[in-house]
Structure formats: structure tokens, C-alpha cells
């Protein structure tokens, strides 16, 4: 193989996958808090293992990225309010 993935990166990829899966299941089951929390923990831990902890910290704390994260949070909040109003 030309490029091999280390064991840490394989674990990180798996954790990111579990994070996406648990977040999706949490949204399907009407925003179940436990599943969403597990999804967030798995996803952030996986990103930390893939990028490295220092790079991940810089990604989430740069001033330019904070504005984007705030916009994403606002979009997520609006979508969840629309979804909840449609379901009941």
C-alpha cells in the first residue's frame, strides 16, 4: 500500500462514524438527549484523534471560525425548531 493509516487514525475514523450514527439516531428519535450527547462526545473525540488535540483546539477557537460556528449553530437551531413544530 502506498499510504497506510495508523491505528489511532482508524480509531478516530470509527469514533467519527459512531458520532454521526448516534447523532442521526438521536434526531430520528425526536431529539433524544442521551443519544445526541453520545454522538457529540464520539464525534469530537474522533476529530481530536484524527487532527490532533492542538489542531482541533485551534480549529474551534480561531476568531474567523467562531463566527462560522455561531452561524452553523443558529442554522441548526432554526432547523430543529421547524422540525419540532412540524411534528407536533
From TrEMBL:
Biological process terms in GO annotation: endoplasmic reticulum to Golgi vesicle-mediated transport; retrograde transport, endosome to Golgi
Source organism superkingdom: Eukaryota
Matching InterPro entries: Got1, Vesicle_transpt_Got1/SFT2
Entry membrane topology: Multi-pass membrane protein
Transmembrane segments: 12-31, 37-57
Keyword Membrane assigned: yes
Keyword Translocase among record annotations: no
Chief site of localization: Golgi
Alphabetical UniProt keywords: Golgi apparatus, Membrane, Transmembrane, Transmembrane helix
Annotated localization: Golgi apparatus membrane
Recorded GO CC terms: cytosol; Golgi membrane
PANTHER family, per the entry: CGI-141-RELATED/LIPASE CONTAINING PROTEIN, GOT1_SFT2-LIKE VESCICLE TRANSPORT PROTEIN FAMILY
Family the UniProt entry places it in: Belongs to the GOT1 family.
Protein's UniProt name: Vesicle transport protein
Amino acid at each position: 500500500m502506498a499510504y497506510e493509516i495508523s491505528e489511532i487514525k482508524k480509531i478516530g475514523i470509527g469514533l467519527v462514524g459512531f458520532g454521526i450514527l448516534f447523532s442521526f439516531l438521536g434526531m430520528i428519535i425526536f431529539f433524544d438527549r442521551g443519544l445526541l450527547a453520545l454522538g457529540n462526545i464520539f464525534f469530537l473525540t474522533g476529530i481530536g484523534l484524527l487532527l490532533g488535540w492542538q489542531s482541533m483546539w485551534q480549529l474551534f477557537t480561531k476568531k474567523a471560525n467562531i463566527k462560522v460556528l455561531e452561524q452553523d449553530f443558529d442554522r441548526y437551531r432554526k432547523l430543529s425548531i421547524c422540525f419540532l413544530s412540524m411534528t407536533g
